[in-house]
């Protein structure tokens, strides 16, 4: 008998841990993309597409993991998330659109489109972190 899917229970029990997991997965997917963007790795459209689709899936998962009161403790989520919910939601939409553009560039096997889309994705991540995430201690 297969084991039940545990993600929904984890999200309800500890949304901060679940969103940290999603963001770490995003970070892991960004590393090879950054290497390609910097010319440290050969461009691979299929790898770009796969990584960007995983990033998009994790953004979709993470955006649902910020219920009121889930900051504090080890969480780096700032109160601005709940004080400015529309701005926070807009940042997620920008990041998701950028990840989608990266995936499309990979699908088209276009290194030029990838470079532009990846810059946009990095900017979207940085803008969100600047306003809504506390720096590491």
Unreliable spans are 1-11
- How would a textbook summarize the main sheet? none
User: Overall 3D geometry?
Assistant: elongated
SS element count, helices: 6
- The portion of residues assigned to helices is over 70%
Notes on the structure:
The protein is mainly alpha-helical and 137 residues long. Helix content is 71%, strand content 0%. It has six helices and no strands. Helix 1 (7-13) packs across helix 2 (15-37), helix 2 packs antiparallel against helix 3 (45-62) and helix 5 runs antiparallel to helix 6 (111-132). It is elongated and about 45 Å long.
Protein topology:
Elements: H1 7-13, H2 15-37, H3 45-62, H4 80-83, H5 85-107, H6 111-132
Features:
137 residues, mainly alpha, 6 helices, elongated
Outline of the structure:
By secondary structure, the protein is mostly helical. It has helices spanning 7-13, 15-37, 45-62, 80-83, 85-107, 111-132.
């Amino acid at each position: 008998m297969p084991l039940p899917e545990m993600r929904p229970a984890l999200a309800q029990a500890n949304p901060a841990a679940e969103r940290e997991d999603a963001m770490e997965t995003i970070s892991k997917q960004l590393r090879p993309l950054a290497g390609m963007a910097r010319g440290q790795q050969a461009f691979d459209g299929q790898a770009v597409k796969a990584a960007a689709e995983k990033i998009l899936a994790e953004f979709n998962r993470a955006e649902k993991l910020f219920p009121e009161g889930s900051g504090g403790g080890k969480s780096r989520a700032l109160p601005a998330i709940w004080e400015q919910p529309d701005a926070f939601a807009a940042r997620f939409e920008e990041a998701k659109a950028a990840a989608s553009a990266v995936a499309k560039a990979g699908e088209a096997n276009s290194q030029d489109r990838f470079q532009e889309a990846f810059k946009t994705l990095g900017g979207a991540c940085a803008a969100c972190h600047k306003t809504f995430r506390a720096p590491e201690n």
